[in-house]
Amino acid sequence: MPFLRQFFSHRLIWLAVLVSLGIGVLFARSIWTIRQDEWNYAAQTNANLVQTLEQGLGWVLESFDKSLEGVAREVARPEVWDLPPELRARVVFDNSLRSRGAGDVLVLDAQGNIVLDSGSLTPRKANLADRDYFLAFQKDGHQGLYIGKPVPSRITGLNILPLSRAYFHADGSFAGVVVGAVRLSYFNELFGALDMGPSSGVNLFRSDGVVISRFPYGDMDVGKTIAGSPNMLRFQKEGNGSFVGTAALDGVERLYSFRQVGEFPLIINVAQATSTILGKWYSSSLWLGGFALLLMAACLGLALLFVRELTLRQQVAARLSEAEHDVRTILNNMPSMIGYWDAHLLNRFANKAHFEWFGIQPDRLRGMHFSELVGPERFAVNKPFLNRALQGEPQLFESTLLDVHGVSRHIIVSYVPDTEAGAVRGIFVQTTDISERKRMEDELFDEKERVRLTLQSIGDAVVCSDARGSVTYLNPAAERLTGWQAFDAAGHNVDEVVCLRSPDNDALLPSPLRTAIQQAAVMEAVRGVVEHRGSGQRFQVEETASPITDRHGAVRGAVAVLRDVTEAVAMAERMAHLAQYDALTDLPNRVLLHDRAQLAIAQARRDGKSLAVMYLDLDGFKEVNDRLGHDVGDVLLVQFAQRLKAAVRASDTVCRQGGDEFVVLLPGLEGAEPARGVARKILASCDAPFELAGEPVRVGLSGGIALFPQHGDTFDALSRHADSAMYAAKRGGRMRFMLYRGPDVQPEVVLPEVAVGAEG
């Protein structure tokens, strides 16, 4: 019998080994087949994607090329340049491409200057002679379409891909270049619809290896070259195809499917990381491999069980004991309380976590009633849930529980009925401590509340929107500024709620918030005017905006901050005025006078004319101050300033030098006689008394005159001579002007009524 048992046992063991190996081979073949299917599917998907993208780009570029060819054909006709500018622009740019992603079309002359601009009737100023697409035609004699290197536009500042064609004179000589641009953001938008997993994307290169677009890797590699890299050499050699290679820019292994874009010197490829392609296969392989190993082990195990039938009970007992030990080990190391209670709510099992909570060893819990463990009060709270669980209804609820240390913990409790043949045999109870999660939820709520209160209390207006530009939030400051209530503005377009206009011409300005969404970038402050919805009051504001992104970098909305700068702007304008005008009389001060004098002298030199500088000083002003007070003296200065302005031309400048001294600048004179006439008018303005403090007061004046160029060719020289002539007038009897005639010559006297000759 022992020999027979040994013979059959050996046979069974070998049979089990063969069956296990067969199972392993079958599963290995299945795993390999799944891998091939995943790889083939990815390769076909890549090939289809790159073909679709190539056809789309080819169509766009072909359309763009035809547009440029049409513009080049028109500007090559001499009669086009004889047309009026508006009609010429219509004729030339009638064929220009107007599509998403296309920028303005520029016509350059043979020196690289912009002579026609599809975006402006008056061509924008820029020279593009240094651009590669211009030099390719000018120096290298390139024929047909030329695709330049991606560069920032000198017109818009945006990253563009320039496409250009040359046009020629009737004799065949080079006349210039027609250039258009495709915004690089267009490629990102086009490729953005693809979701190929991490480290995967779409690349667009020039045939010489220059990077045009790498999505979703950003613009940091744009303009770089991978010429000479193994991948680029293969792209250039084969034109179309697929292969597995490592990227020169980041060293990641990918499956590349590539095609030349039509007949253009461009190569597009769809690159999917091999780790992404085989990610699901790795997971499936682990599961299938594990299952195969399980089946193989099961075969061997069954054979061994059959072979050792004599010791089956002992082996089963040992394995059950081991399994129970493993389960206990797992359950005892879990942080949650896990127990089993029979239909009478008597404990059958409890893990070690019960000791941490209640201070009772699990062995002592066996046979204990549920109420003894939690106490009468807690049992009364839990009893409705226990009753429903004993009726076969799973229960899940949150509660609080005191541990052995008297610390209150927030818990989530699960009651899962154990049913057999429709009858509930017991309940699996799992109790998990979620105190930390609750604490974090409370902290998150507090943080949100702090943010809300902060936004409610700040003085700047805050406007939030979603990714479509619809308003989601206004703080109180924004409500006061715009006249919109937060609940009323919700869902409205941000351009409707915050309509920003130019402070110069009231033209509508692009919304910084919407621009922040579109460009996914922080927008610097933009100065504009916002009109209150209800009152129509206009506020000058500075608006900044920032995009709101999720953890993946996708734009989910934006926030704009509007600072009311109305008072600040008004104050700045007032300060600028005070910097050049006298605060009392509102006449130009010495700073402004000096600037105007320099301009007047330059104009006089150019036109061959004269100008006069007059210095005036009130006679008797000190007596008015001493007798009537300085406030009345200020009134006198204001009245005199008004009379003085009335006595001169609008083109003349009247300045208060300081105190009771005034300066008059008379430009564009024909000799000295006009200056004498103005002097007599000024003297006549003092004939009538001044009404000061309810009484008439007579005040005279003394003045001096210097002429350009006779008495000096600078303003400083003219000022000195006019000042000396004024003091000569004071010494000579006052209420008169003195015309300067030289350093050693007595000044000429100018009286109110009749001019007299020079005093001898």
Q: What do these coordinates show?
A:
With 760 residues, the chain is of the alpha+beta class. Among the domains are: 90 residues, Beta-Lactamase (2-Layer Sandwich); 103 residues, Beta-Lactamase, CATH 3.30.450; 113 residues, 2-Layer Sandwich (Beta-Lactamase), CATH 3.30.450; 172 residues, Reverse transcriptase/Diguanylate cyclase domain (Alpha-Beta Plaits, 2-Layer Sandwich). It has 23 helices and 29 strands. The strands form six sheets. Strands 1, 2, 3, 4, 5 and 6 form a six-stranded antiparallel sheet that branches. It starts with a helix and ends in a 10-residue tail after the last strand.
Please sum up the structure shown.
The protein is α+β, with helices and mostly antiparallel strands and 760 residues long.
